[in-house]
Design brief:
single chain, about 80 residues, alpha+beta, Alpha-Beta Plaits, four-stranded antiparallel sheet, 2 helices, 4 strands, globular
Protein backbone atom coordinates (compact mmCIF):
# COMPACT_ATOMS: atom_id res chain seq x y z
CA UNK A 1 0.00 0.00 0.00
CA UNK A 2 1.18 3.52 -0.75
CA UNK A 3 0.16 6.97 0.37
CA UNK A 4 0.44 9.34 -2.58
CA UNK A 5 0.18 13.10 -2.35
CA UNK A 6 -0.52 15.15 -5.44
CA UNK A 7 0.05 18.89 -5.38
CA UNK A 8 -1.59 20.76 -8.25
CA UNK A 9 -0.58 24.30 -9.15
CA UNK A 10 -2.86 26.21 -11.53
CA UNK A 11 -5.68 23.94 -10.46
CA UNK A 12 -8.27 25.14 -12.95
CA UNK A 13 -5.97 24.34 -15.87
CA UNK A 14 -4.53 20.99 -14.76
CA UNK A 15 -7.43 19.28 -12.99
CA UNK A 16 -8.97 17.70 -16.13
CA UNK A 17 -5.69 15.90 -16.90
CA UNK A 18 -5.22 14.84 -13.27
CA UNK A 19 -8.81 13.58 -13.12
CA UNK A 20 -8.27 11.52 -16.28
CA UNK A 21 -5.34 9.69 -14.64
CA UNK A 22 -7.30 9.19 -11.41
CA UNK A 23 -10.18 7.70 -13.39
CA UNK A 24 -7.85 5.43 -15.37
CA UNK A 25 -6.45 3.91 -12.16
CA UNK A 26 -9.66 4.25 -10.14
CA UNK A 27 -10.01 0.56 -9.33
CA UNK A 28 -6.59 0.58 -7.66
CA UNK A 29 -7.33 3.62 -5.49
CA UNK A 30 -8.70 2.72 -2.08
CA UNK A 31 -9.33 6.24 -0.76
CA UNK A 32 -9.02 9.77 -2.03
CA UNK A 33 -9.28 13.10 -0.23
CA UNK A 34 -9.09 16.39 -2.08
CA UNK A 35 -8.35 19.81 -0.65
CA UNK A 36 -8.74 22.78 -2.92
CA UNK A 37 -8.07 26.48 -2.57
CA UNK A 38 -5.58 25.94 0.23
CA UNK A 39 -3.88 29.20 -0.62
CA UNK A 40 -4.75 32.30 -2.56
CA UNK A 41 -2.77 31.01 -5.53
CA UNK A 42 -5.42 28.32 -6.11
CA UNK A 43 -3.29 25.28 -5.38
CA UNK A 44 -4.90 21.94 -4.71
CA UNK A 45 -3.81 18.88 -2.77
CA UNK A 46 -5.03 15.31 -3.26
CA UNK A 47 -4.16 12.49 -0.85
CA UNK A 48 -4.52 8.94 -2.22
CA UNK A 49 -4.37 5.55 -0.51
CA UNK A 50 -3.22 3.35 -3.39
CA UNK A 51 -3.53 -0.43 -3.06
CA UNK A 52 -2.98 -1.51 -6.67
CA UNK A 53 0.05 -2.98 -8.39
CA UNK A 54 0.66 -0.13 -10.84
CA UNK A 55 1.66 2.65 -8.46
CA UNK A 56 4.89 3.46 -10.30
CA UNK A 57 3.07 3.93 -13.61
CA UNK A 58 0.32 5.91 -11.86
CA UNK A 59 2.83 8.31 -10.30
CA UNK A 60 4.79 8.55 -13.54
CA UNK A 61 1.69 9.57 -15.52
CA UNK A 62 0.79 12.20 -12.94
CA UNK A 63 4.34 13.59 -12.93
CA UNK A 64 4.13 14.09 -16.70
CA UNK A 65 1.38 16.69 -16.19
CA UNK A 66 2.58 20.29 -15.98
CA UNK A 67 2.28 21.97 -12.58
CA UNK A 68 1.79 18.65 -10.75
CA UNK A 69 4.11 17.29 -8.03
CA UNK A 70 3.72 13.74 -6.74
CA UNK A 71 5.14 12.11 -3.60
CA UNK A 72 4.83 8.36 -3.03
CA UNK A 73 5.30 6.83 0.41
CA UNK A 74 5.42 3.06 0.93
CA UNK A 75 3.40 1.99 3.97
Amino acid sequence: MKVITISVDKREKEVPDVQAVLTKYGEEIHSRIGYHNLQKDRKGLIVIIYTGKNSEKFCEELNEISNVKVNCIEV
